[in-house]
Amino acid sequence: MPQRKDHLDTLAVSLLVVCCAFWGFQQILIKFAGREIPPLWQASLRMWGATALLWLWCRGRGVPLFQRDGSLPGGLLVGLLFAAEFVFIYLGLQHTSASRLTVFLYTSPFWVALLLPRFVSAERLRPIQWAGLCLAFAAVAVAFSEAFLHGSTPGQWKGDAMGLAAGLFWGLTTVAIRTTRIATVAAEKSLFYQLGVTAAVTPLLSLALGERWALDYSALAWGSVFLQTAVGAFASYLAWMWMLRHYPATRMATFTFLTPLFALVFGVLLLGEPLTLQLLLALAGVAAGIVLVSRR
After folding, report:
1. pTM of whole model > 0.85?
2. Any idea what the Cα angle at residue 55 is, between residues 183 and 249, rounded to 5°?
3. In a 10 Å sphere around its CB, with 0-12 CB exposed, 13-18 middle and 19+ buried, how is residue 44 labelled?
4. Taking the domains of the chain in order of start, what are their residue ranges?
5. Mean pLDDT, range 28-52, rounded to an integer
6. Across residues 40-46, what is the average pLDDT?
7. Topology with regard to the membrane (predicted)?
8. How far apart are CA 129 and CA 113, in angstroms?
């Protein structure tokens, strides 16, 4: 087992900021490519490509992926939870803005903090950190209420709800990684379970929804899928899996509340998404939650 640290050092903070910036931009990429590519077909292309890249990476580094180590049950569970998260992300972006969905997606630390200490005593939070989580979650509730106000986009609440569901499944994925045999395998194998299962599930759901499969998309759409695949689903998630094995999951998960800030900026600048008072209040609450929960 690798040596675990009880706080986030400079390396962890730097990696988290870079990952959060791209994950905020990632929702913009999905939204942009979604103008041409059906949502779950887009997810399938992404996961197929990322699974292939990860397999090649493991072959080159000599990381065994198919060795019997008792991790299969936990790996399938983690993979299904990961797949559910991305199904809700891709479908949710059909109904709400990228910046809004990202805010709801990053409620995942609430679920991690609620469930993980029941299995891992070292992950327990102090009262001030719980206050930070509650503040951030209350702020997200303010943003969700906006979907029911007059003048909101029709069906926006559906996308917001899917964002919340995606956040729940992301939190459950983190908990499952830490509490099953997946915690003892290489980061590459853990990610392979997640990408591989999702690559198997999303095309089946795409066919069930009657999505049209094609490959005749613009260069910009393919560029979006490439970035989602190579940087998003491969490089950044591999870094995340590695950090989960070396740093406290609750600290990491809450720190990633920075991503909605990046998503808001990118959404407003690149997609012209509306900047509302409720969303600003939600982001302010999230930022305050980061400060409280990150205190050592």
Report:
1. yes
2. 25
3. buried
4. 10-293
5. 96
6. 98
7. Multi-pass membrane protein
8. 10
Output the CA–CA distances (angstroms, integers) from residue 294 to 8, 33, 137, 228, 250, in the order listed.
9, 35, 16, 29, 9
pLDDT > 80? residue 182? yes
179-188, 248-257, 260-269, range with the lowest pLDDT: 248-257
The CA distance from 238 to 246, in Å, is 13
Q: Which two tokens stand for residue 240?
A: 């995340």
**pLDDT at residue 13 in the model:** 87
Residue with the larger pLDDT of the pair 32 and 290 = 32
Q: Binning pLDDT at 50, 70 and 90, where does residue 108 land? A: confident
Q: Which two tokens stand for residue 258?
A: 């920075």
The full DSSP string for the chain is -PPP-SS--HHHHHHHHHHHHHHHHHHHHHHHHTTTS-HHHHHHHHHHHHHHHHHHHHHHHT--SS--SS-HHHHHHHHHHHHHHHHHHHHHTTTS-HHHHHHHHTTHHHHHHHHGGGT-GGGPPPHHHHHHHHHHHHHHHHHHHGGGSTTSPTTHHHHHHHHHHHHHHHHHHHHHHHHSGGGGS-HHHHHHHHHHHHHHHHHHHHHHTTPPP-----HHHHHHHHHIIIIIIIIIHHHHHHHHTTS-HHHHHHHTTHHHHHHHHHHHHHH-----HHHHHHHHHHHHHHHHHT--
Dist CA 163 CA 170 (whole Å)? 10
Which of 74-83, 128-137, 209-218, 268-277 shows the lowest mean pLDDT across its residues? 128-137
